[in-house]
Amino acid sequence: MVDDLRGADAATVRGAIETSDPLPGTAGFAGEVDGRIVRDVLGRQPIYLDTTGDDWSFDPNDLDRPELLDAGTVVDGGEGRQVWSLPDLEVETDSDAAVDAVREAVLTSVREPGSEGLAVAFSGGVDSAVVAAGVSEAPCYVAGFADAESHDVAAAREAAEAMGRDLRVVGFDHADIERAVPEIVRATGLANAMDVGIALPLYFVAERAAADGYDRLAVGQGADELFGGYRKVVTPAEDHRVAAETVRGATREVIATLPQQLPRDVLTLRAAGVEPVAPLLHDRVVDAALRLPADLLATPDERKVALRRAADGVVPEPVRSAEKKAVQYGTYAARELDRLARQAGFKKRMEDHVGQYIDALVAGEA
């Protein structure tokens, strides 16, 4: 098979298997090494096994019955075992040292990819701004519904101006959504409203970047999970969305969702013609994030505390402290997907009306 291993060299993966090291210094890996099928601890590279035989692929559409390999797994001789688990690292109690470690890890990682053939998915928040700061020559792209100035487009314009960056706005309309939804569903195998709503703006940005001649797209994925970006980790004992009762515990719980989320983004971007680059998911960043105390993750007054402090002097102050909506809402993708569903006769009173509309689009019946 061409391209048997992605994200790391064989020697690094062999060493990680032998030592059970979950963070061997990569940005994630998957593939085949010495006849063994592997997927890294956070599942940053998706890989699928065919349940009807011994075949595997990075693309589920290559297989008759694809099944996503669990993160941290090594399959040898048809038998899978979990070799890597998210480590429980010692907490850094010195706040300044913890922030310094995050700053060093993040800045090293965002500079590492280089600007050649690279564009940046840019929403105007601290995550994408830090990524963009590492590749100063790369153009920035933001998507938003064409008939209104979406939150993400407005925020990206302000941030790009403050940073002196080239911003390219990708406006999408209803026809674009109707065209893209079946392509996203075919690429990812996901047809629910949430996943499709998240994937749509990523797809449009990647499609435009590819048309402009770029073959890599830098994204800020992982920052919310690693650094305490979700509201549900602020007071977890009072939030039914998490089982943990501490900020650190809830953050680890959220990090554990990455292996199921990331294939959606990776497969969407590849379907649009670019290879994703996620520097904030590099092992060195993961290591620094896992050592953060609760008050540097999320408090009632601020989320992603350490990341924002680490970004001081790297991105302008209004960008460093800006709050951002989830991408499906900030770009109006979810709103317009819902509007199209209702216009097609799938009313809100119907169960999962947007999901039914998506199914109809894929089937060519809407």
UniProtKB/TrEMBL annotation:
Start and end residues of each Asparagine synthetase domain: 116-235, 254-348
SUPFAM superfamilies: Adenine nucleotide alpha hydrolases-like
Nucleotide-binding found in the keyword field: yes
Keyword field contains Zinc: no
InterPro entries attached to this UniProt entry: Asn_synthase (IPR001962), Asn_Synthetase (IPR050795), Rossmann-like_a/b/a_fold (IPR014729)
Leader sequence segment: none
GO terms assigned for molecular function: ATP binding
Record keywords: ATP-binding, Nucleotide-binding
PANTHER family linked: ASPARAGINE SYNTHETASE (PTHR11772), ASPARAGINE SYNTHETASE [GLUTAMINE-HYDROLYZING] (PTHR11772:SF2)
Name of the protein: Asparagine synthase C-terminal domain-containing protein
Lineage of the organism: Archaea, Methanobacteriati, Methanobacteriota, Stenosarchaea group, Halobacteria
